[in-house]
Sequence to fold (187 residues):
Amino acid sequence: MRYQITGKQIDIGEALQTHVRTELGEAVAKYAERPTNATVVFSKSASEFACEVIVHLSTGLTAQATGKAHEIYAAFDASCEKMEKQLRRYKRRLKDHHKERAQPVELFGGSSYILASETEAGESEPDSLQPIIVAEMEAQIPSLSVGEAVMQMELAGAPVLVFRNEAKSGLNVVYRRDDGNIGWIDP
Fold:
């Protein structure tokens, strides 16, 4: 597994990098058969350290966990525990579904746009009804089953996931509802 360990405006020592490689490697090896790479980012705000861990699996799924603590090692340990818990649940769901994906998840290209949320200061109405595009990016749309899409959304900690339904070859959306349940839009 490839590791990318960085710090946002803080220096990451060799001892911490070694600790991350061994602990994260052990946690991921228990539950994931073929992880491809891991990104670990440390940051500090006031007196608290934050650690964000992202692990990409060979199946195309991504697991993400964050942890915060007053010490940098404790922040990593908290995020590593969350990662281990997510991967344990992921593996249990795979066993429950009795389905093994023989091929990696197929990804399709798409465009992602960020639109301006407010009009300029002092202007009561916009000149046109066309929204102002602030940024344009490429996005990857995975081809998944509905169950895998829900699993991917939960592993990533995202509120919504757009995916291509393997069964119907159409675009679908799964999202977390206000009542805690999962919603599925199948146009």
Summary: The chain has two domains: 2-97, 106-185. The radius of gyration is 20 Å. The mean pLDDT is 80.
